[in-house]
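Run log, item B.
One chain of 579 residues. Sequence copied directly from the ordering sheet:
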Amino acid sequence: MMAVAAAQKNREMFAIKKSYSIENGYPSRRRSLVDDARFETLVVKQTKQTVLEEARSKANDDSLEDCIVQAQEHIPSEQDVELQDEHANLENLPLEEYVPVEEDVEFESVEQEQSQSQSQEPEGNQQPTKNDYGLTEDEILLANAASESSEAEAAMQSAALVVRLKEGISSLGRILKAIETFHGTVQHVESRQSRMEGVDHDVLIKLDMTRGNLLQLIRSLRQSGSFSSMNLMADNNLNVKAPWFPKHASELDNCNHLMTKYEPDLDMNHPGFADKVYRQRRKEIAEIAFAYKYGDPIPFIDYSDVEVKTWRSVFKTVQDLAPKHACAEYRAAFQKLQDEQIFVETRLPQLQEMSDFLRKNTGFSLRPAAGLLTARDFLASLAFRIFQSTQYVRHVNSPYHTPEPDSIHELLGHMPLLADPSFAQFSQEIGLASLGASDEEIEKLSTVYWFTVEFGLCKEHGQIKAYGAGLLSSYGELLHAISDKCEHRAFEPASTAVQPYQDQEYQPIYYVAESFEDAKDKFRRWVSTMSRPFEVRFNPHTERVEVLDSVDKLETLVHQMNTEILHLTNAISKLRRPF
């Protein structure tokens, strides 16, 4: 619980508090998941820069000098640690914990994370000033976690230190002695000749130590002239570097605070900007969504005659277009929704009845949303097979276009395909890939989502069909996407992820999947190249995301898989028996 609280505090520290508007630097008038991700990356970097500058300034205050001098006294001098003592420290390590220079077993992954971290560091903070004690983002977040309470400061932290030695491997003994002084336990030591000019050796040390002592160790090592540089990489559940993400469906309640409120009040180009009645209606429905908590029944919305009229207009259009232009999976689910009297033109479906329908067919469920979430929070919800859906309706004066998703877009565009098992699995895998991903990777995943789930095309008996929700709920762009006025490209996640997004006009390029299964296979291979240093899986029995970062967890998973394989083998055996 302590680790979760600290991680959430770190998340709050870098939370986005600006509204998604042109005035605050949002790149366009029309809201989209792709532009959200880009805007969030920019704002988070700006916020981090401000927080880091404040923390570094505080670290340079005279009040910290005594602490650093005190910590520095714990580092033995060169005269105190003779060469034979250093060799003795190395020899006392278990054989598998010392890796020869030539093998470079773990440096590559660590350096990749380091380079990613440094690339995200704001310009102007690259070189510390003369009196700057070298606080990095990792250390600031670690200090933030330690400051929660005395218990948090005394909590054990697993970490990896990368130290660059200027004076040769003989300096390693001083580092090990300092770790011992601060009551740390060394788990792994690895060294190699450095590739950097002016540096003799690079050393990777994995250790366990209390947070308070780890901060003092880092500050102490930084004062020594024997080391060119030193970097901290956190390595346990309280990863001070990786973004916080929900582990259980109930923790999606913590993602609610980053929603954008009441778009019509912010954007003068919104169709409802001058309509006070509409704006008040949006506000009422938004407040209902903000009050929702995990486990609550989805609130009933009593839609007005005007809102039902808007629904009827769009519903009839989609009903006419779907048989010719929608993919088979969409058509089948649409018909099933009609058969169960959920899709009727005389009323808007309620989210609760739609959620019950999805849960029965694919295990997906719905959660009310006040508007667009941040890209990271929206994608995270998909990992739990939960779709965050709005309940408000677009303005009556613009029935065939809305500047942001509304309930008509969600119901007619997204819900039918979320009832298809293969598409539901593809959506969940996008969500799982987003958990713990970097800001840059969230941008790429959002772009993949945009060109597939929102505006994707697929092949069906040699013809191009639509499966993207944005196409199936937009008459004009649907006809454009299947015409010869645009370019069709085969879906390849690596190229799709970096395709520029057209906001003001129809897309010039659409990506065509051979099938949902083919799209999933390509997506899985692409996700395996992402920089996230761990793998996750969703446990449907507990509604919990499990981080597969230990042998015990892998053994449990293998046991579960063996049980499933046993059932499968028995089923095949029984099917082969003569009647």
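Observations after the first pass:
- The chain has 23 helices and 13 strands.
- The radius of gyration is 27 Å.
Flagged for discussion on Thursday.
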